[in-house]
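Re: beginner question about structure tokens

> Can someone show what the tokenized structure looks like for a real chain? I only ever see the sequence side.

Sure, here's an example I had lying around. Input first:
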Amino acid sequence: MAEFREDPLNTPVPPDDEATLIYGTCSENRLSPEKLREMLGIPSGDRIQDYGELSTIGIGGVGAVFAAHEPGLNRDVALKLLRPQYRNKTERIEAFIREARATAQIDHPNIVPVHRLGVFDDVGVYFSMKRVEGETLRMILVKLAEDRSGYRRKYSLRRLIEIFIGACNGVAFAHRHGILHCDLKPGNLMVGDYGEVLVMDWGMARYHCERDQGRSGTKLDLELNGELEASKSVPPPESPPEGHVVGGTPVFMAPELLTGEVPEATEQSDVYGLGAILYSILTWRNAPFDAKLSQEELCREVALGRFVPPRKAAPAAQPLPLELEAICLKAMARDRSRRYRSVAELLEDVRNYLDGYPVAAYSPTPIYRLSKLIRRHPLVPSVLMAAILTWFGFYAFQLISNLSQSTSLINLAEFNYAQAREYNLLAQRTTRQIRQNQRQPQNRHNRSLERELLRQLAEMENGYNSALEFISRAPELGMRAPQVQRMTRDIFRSTLELYLHGRDYFALRRVLRQFRG
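And the corresponding structure tokens:
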């Protein structure tokens, strides 16, 4: 199983129950802004003071994002910088540049546009990108769970699914160009106030040129023009083995990455991350797994794929269709052979659900497919087909309704029967105690026993009568007939035995009249 380690500097990270973990070691090399500009091929002269109205948007484990105003173009932008302790670390700088170039070179409406990559003299490498007014999907789900005013009306299940489709489109486009995100989670999806859906934070992205299917035929260029000086320090013993460096958010990571079953992330790893996002959308939970578990417990739960199914975890305010649960479970399947092979397959199923077509992940019976067809084309079936379906539908509905009603009534009868049996046994015990105390008729305890006996008999009769009433109302007994007969015989026998044993002949005659009826 892969080993998880926080940054070796133990730098405090703002509290976040789904913070991205950083793996690997940092070199101690110091790079001058001039050398970095030379390797990037960009001119000098950038100063962070040139940007006005700076304010913090968010701070992560390695980077920080600030809102700023770009004076030349007179527009608002977002600036991403490395945190101070990482601004001179070669590994962090290389990963930062790869993130900027990966995001900039996969131009898609659902991927945040990058405007400029540069180096500030005082705060190091940076890149500017489009500033989106809105909230992350994670914050939206938190407010939905808290029932913030207006959120449940604004973000219906269909609207959330549309947001999910936007994220899938962006990730699918990146996959076509050979780029894997590797850190998909609700906190990395930005939802704009005007319908924008942007996949953010490509800092963990991996590029595989052999998978790049870009139409231009040219491969993406994400690396520096030269190599930064490698660290001469010896990595600590706990460093992960070479070739198996993993990173991401454990509660959203694919199990095969945690266990080391695969050496590196694949498209199915991102499919799993999207499935985990869909799980959060369906349940309004932060993640499929509890982030408060210890690292060892969390890794074990994720590795085993042990999480509460969406329909059980979903709040009562959001009932889930079976198709959506099936799509989510297939995307998060522990066995990769049962998981969607690509984001395109996942997208097809989600769109089929919205358009009323059969879903590949959920196809229980031909009737399901037929009902989908009729819903899409309600006027196509001929009069004859409509008549046949009506007749069969009525017959099936009556049969299923009768069986369902009978089952429910018999279950209620069994419950009342079991309760009455308990009071029957208690009444028999109380009767024996009263007989033992017959020598002391004025005993207060004996009088209380007689009152208790009357209560027990009343409860017993109510239970038996309710059971018999539910049985008599069942329209279809079917295979449950022997069980009903046994229950009826036992009610009759136990009632007679109790009244005979207690010598209550008046009650005995009443019961006999009732059974004759």
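Each token stands for a local structural state, so reading them left to right follows the chain. Residues 107 and 406 are 60 Å apart (CA to CA).
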